């Protein structure tokens, strides 16, 4: 699924209002425009823009080394052939597919269904797939549909993806945190938080989870706990919002089944994205919402009504490129990302080796109070520092030591993670990783 911290564009330069012009007061705008969850990335963008030579562990961008501009044309050609040879469209219909407004639910839904069957052993009705403008739109649509008023709440394992927190702010949805441990979401605490919400007169509607190599914590849920999570959702009558951007990037031992592939009661709404597996610039995501409605429609149809008033349809050209990407790989994303997965494995080993080299028992700073987790895949490692890891320290780290990272407290909505940082290693090389961790060690030594 697409991280808010991926795009390190330079922050806009404030401009003085024209003489006699309107001056708006942020206090009179929606609270989300000044919410820390939505403004945190502005600071990161600004710092990165001012220090372009710093080693950046901040952005969760995919690896760029295999991108080829020429491949875009090949993808488009493959999709055009599919329209003609497989779907039997004539020249006018082909042109209309590429250039006109498209179907609100998208037109590569059948290819996404084939991908899910191939890679995830998941059988879904293509009509339950809504293609969205990035996975972020899918989150906003689902939250908007589920949360009718202030009594409706969602739950999420903390720390959690800041983009999900931001989506909740945009639709004024309450979020109740659930504890997360080394094995993912704490099921006992989830049950307790649901009980407390109901005792407070609230309606728990859904719980957001990233079962594989979660952003930011890097943790994964064991298969047995996945089954217990589904049983809990059935027992407590809540939905599970499963986000799955990273499962292809495992350590080489294979992948666990998704919650959705084990879902026999339509309890799981499944978020997917091609940002990490194809390329982020396409801005193509999707949601599988196969929950039946009372009138015989699907939840995806209700979400499409909201999308029609938000983005109308997902870019037809972007869908065509992603459709061609799928077709050229026999609709197997795992097959398409073999090289990238190996890069991430090598980079994860480089990060762990660098941390051991500089902070381990025989490292440069043994006994420094620095510790870290050891994910089995994904793109992120969490490091605990002996000092407060806030935006002030991040600024110092960039200016004096040339290394960027993400303060973890952003992923707790400011209520935790005060001494932790997230290292994202996906867009770096092992050599740059080693340089960056050496700089991080100098920062820790300086503060100590």
UniProtKB/TrEMBL annotation:
One of its GO terms (molecular function) is transaminase activity. It comes from Streptomyces gougerotii. It comes from the Bacteria. Keywords: Aminotransferase, Pyridoxal phosphate, Transferase. This is GntR family transcriptional regulator. One of its GO terms (biological process) is alpha-amino acid metabolic process. CDD domains: AAT_like. The gene is avtA. Pfam families: Aminotran_1_2.
């Amino acid at each position: 699924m697409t991280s808010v911290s991926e795009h390190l564009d330079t922050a806009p330069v404030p401009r003085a209002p024209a003489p006699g012009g309107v001056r708006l007061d942020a206090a009179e705008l929606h609270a989300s425009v000044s919410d820390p969850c939505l403004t945190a990335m502005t600071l990161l963008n600004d710092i990165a823009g001012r220090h372009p030579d710093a080693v950046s562990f901040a952005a969760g961008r995919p690896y760029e080394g295999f991108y080829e501009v020429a491949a875009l044309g090949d993808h488009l050609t493959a999709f055009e052939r599919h329209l003609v040879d497989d779907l039997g469209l004539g020249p006018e219909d082909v042109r209309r597919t590429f250039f006109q407004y498209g179907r609100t639910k998208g037109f590569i839904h059948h290819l996404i269904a084939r991908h899910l069957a191939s890679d995830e052993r998941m059988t879904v009705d293509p009509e339950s797939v809504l293609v969205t403008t990035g996975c972020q739109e899918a989150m906003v649509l689902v939250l908007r549909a589920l949360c009718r008023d202030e009594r409706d709440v969602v739950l999420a394992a903390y720390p959690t993806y800041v983009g999900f927190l931001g989506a909740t702010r945009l639709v004024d949805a309450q979020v109740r945190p659930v504890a997360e441990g080394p094995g993912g979401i704490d099921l006992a605490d989830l049950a307790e938080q649901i009980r407390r919400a109901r005792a407070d007169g609230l309606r728990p509607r859904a719980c957001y989870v990233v079962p594989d190599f979660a952003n930011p914590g890097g943790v994964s849920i064991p298969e047995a706990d996945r089954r217990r999570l589904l049983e809990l959702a059935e027992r407590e009558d809540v939905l599970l919002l499963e986000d799955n951007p990273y499962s292809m990037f495992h350590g080489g031992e294979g992948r666990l089944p998704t919650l959705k592939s084990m879902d026999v009661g339509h309890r799981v709404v499944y978020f997917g994205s091609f940002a990490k597996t194809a390329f982020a610039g396409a801005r193509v995501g999707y949601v599988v919402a196969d929950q039946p409605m009372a009138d015989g429609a699907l939840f995806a149809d209700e979400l499409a009504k909201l999308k029609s008033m938000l983005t109308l349809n997902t870019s037809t050209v972007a869908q065509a490129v992603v459709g061609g990407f799928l077709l050229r790989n026999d609709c197997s994303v795992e097959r398409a990302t073999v090289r990238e997965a190996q890069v991430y494995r090598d980079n994860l080993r480089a990060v762990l080796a660098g941390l051991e080299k500089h902070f381990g028992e025989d490292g440069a700073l043994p006994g420094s109070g620095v510790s870290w987790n050891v994910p089995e895949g994904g793109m992120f490692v969490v490091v605990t520092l002996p000092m407060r890891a806030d935006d002030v320290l991040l600024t110092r780290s960039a200016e004096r030591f040339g290394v960027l990272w993400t303060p973890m407290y952003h992923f707790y909505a400011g209520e935790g993670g005060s001494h932790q940082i997230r290292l994202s290693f996906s867009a770096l090389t092992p050599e740059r990783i080693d340089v960056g961790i050496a700089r991080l060690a100098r920062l820790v030594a300086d503060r100590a």
